[in-house]
Every structure is written in C-alpha cells, then in structure tokens.
Amino acid sequence: MQRRTLVQSAIASLAAGALPAFAQGAWPTGKTISYIVPFPAGGTTDVLARLIAQQLGVALGTSVIIDNKGGAGGSVGSEIAARAVPDGYTMLGGTISSHAINVSLYPKLGYDPIKSFAPVTLIGTNPVVLVVNQASRYKTLKDVIDASKAKAGSGGLSSASAGTGTSQHLAMELLAYKSGVKFTHIPYKGSGPAIQDVIGGQVDMMFDTTVVAGPHIQSGKLRAIAVTSAKRLPSMPDVPTVAESGINGLKDFEVVSWQAIFVPAGTPAPIIDRLHSEIRTILAKSDMQEKLTGFGMAPADMTTTQIATFQKAEVDKWAAVIKAANIKAE
C-alpha cells in the first residue's frame, strides 16, 4: 500500500512538471562544455569566445573550453557542432559566414544553418574595415581601385580573407562587383594567419572585422583605408566609409558582420534558456560592453525567437547578393 502511494505520488509529480525541473537543475553535471570556434585562434569569433568562456564556466560551475576547428569559412567546425549530441555540452560560435552566407555558396554544405541549430545569443554586430600594410603606397580607396585597374591583366590587387564565404570575402566581392574592378581573392583558414600576411606584405590588402584589425591599426602595423558601415565608427572617426569614397557604384555600399552562439538542434529548452540568461548577464557587464564598443561592435540584445527571425532574413539577403554578383565558392 505504501509502495503504491509512492508510485502514485511520483506520477503526480511528473504530471506537475517535476521532471523538467529536475533535468534543468541537474545540468551541468560538472562535465566540460566544448565551445567550438569554427576558425583558428586569433580571429573575431575566437577572441569573443575566450572573453565569454571563462566567465560562463564560473557561472555554470564547470569548465568551458575553446575548441578551434577552422576551415571552409566556418563550415568545418559548424558541421562538427551540428552532429554533436544535443545535451548542452556543445556550443558553437556562429557567424554571418557559417550561418547566413555559406549555404548559398557551397552546393553540398554538411549542415543546415537554420534547421541544424538552435540560437542562444547574438553577441553583436560590426562592420569590416579595409586595411593595408603601413608601408603600402595605397592611402585611399581610390588608390586601391586605381592600382587594381592597372593590374587588371594579372588579376588586380590581392585580397586576403578568413576563408571563402566569410564577411571579409563577401566585402571584397561586393567591392569588385559594384566598382567593376577585379581583385584576386586569397582565402585562409582564419583571420589570424590572413592578417599576418597582410602585415608582412605577402598580400596587398584585406577586409577584416574591427575586432581583429583594430589593435594592428592602433599599433601602426596596418593602415585603415575605409570601413563598410553606413556611418563612420566612433572608435575610428578619421577612417571614411566606403560610401564616402565618391567612387561610382559605391554610394550604398554596406557590409555588417555579426557574431552569435548556437547549440545543436534538439538541445533541451531549459538548457538553452539558462545559457541565454547567463551569457546575456556576462555581455551586459560594463567592462564587457566597453570591450565590445572598443572593438567597434554594436552590442545586441535579442530573444532567441528574434535571433531566429534575424538569421532567416540574413540567409535570404546574402542569397540574393551572391546570386546577383555571381559569387562562386573557390
């Protein structure tokens, strides 16, 4: 009789929602959480992941380790994350390239940027900036355009990127498309190695996020030519926008990159909600806000539903751009 009463009580408790509450309270169990960064160390996604991971680990009472899996504009690491067990122990640093652009560039992508993941947090948005080596003779966008025209027979100036399909690549392709000037795209496996070759003079130029390029501009290793935002950045007030160049076809030029965090589709909602809440708290701290602003990023504060809507619009937007510019994966 007592046993039957206990069983009935357990069933009643389950019906009342005790199981979800227990499951939520049991996570994390102390098991290490893998934060996959689909680019090599040193790039924007990696820098932001390291800023967030340590504080998130403290908040959750477990270790959050960065796992760099670079390649194919973020596609390699994203595919690994998409196939991971959706148990709350795998996170992914998603970007405009991995979760909005690549699906229109690669005919056989190993994941669906929307169906394979659940959004957790939109960290922020930021424009990219065109940079050259400090010793370069190019000082304005007109210098760059004119020099590339002069070298049209050999493919124009060389432009590095963090990989095919990244915002750096698309910015270069859009500049070429709208200005009618050719450039030679040199894809790398991430911003870190790409920008080092621009600094070293092996590549003529590069569009990169303000997060990565900013410190090198401040140190004098790179010269900023133009930013891709609609307005000048408070962090770089002396750097003109591409639209300000006065060059035909560029008056409406704008490219804005973004950084987000995703988990594999099927991850329990209570875990997503906990991650969303903890990461929002971390990003809202004054020191973190200062870092993001200093990077030239505009902090974002969206619900997971709003992020999903935003991402879908970005997928559609870049699909149209890639088709119009006839951009192909290399």
Written account of the structure:
This protein has 330 residues and is an alpha/beta fold. It has twelve helices and ten strands. Strands 1, 2, 3, 4, 5, 6, 7, 8, 9 and 10 form a ten-stranded mixed sheet that branches. β5 (158-161), α7 (167-179) and β6 (184-187) form a beta-alpha-beta unit. α3 (44-60) crosses α10 and α5 (96-105) crosses α12. The longest helix has 22 residues, at 304-325.
Structural class: alpha/beta
Q: Biggest β-sheet, characterized?
A: 10 strands, mixed
Low-confidence stretches: 1-24
β-strand amount: 15-25%
Helix count?
Answer: 12
Name the overall outline. globular
Percent of residues in helices comes to 40-55%
- The average pLDDT value, as a whole number, equals 89
Assembly context of the chains:
single chain
Distance between the termini: 72 Å
Summarize the structure.
The chain is α/β, with parallel strands linked by helices. It has twelve helices and ten strands.
Q: What layout of secondary structure does this protein have?
A:
Layout: H1 2-15, H2 18-26, E1 33-37, H3 44-60, E2 64-68, H4 75-82, E3 90-95, H5 96-105, E4 117-133, H6 141-150, E5 158-161, H7 167-179, E6 184-187, H8 191-199, E7 205-209, H9 210-219, E8 222-227, E9 256-264, H10 269-284, H11 286-294, E10 298-299, H12 304-325
Parallel strand pairs: 1-2, 1-3, 5-6, 5-7
Antiparallel strand pairs: 3-9, 4-7, 4-8, 4-9, 4-10
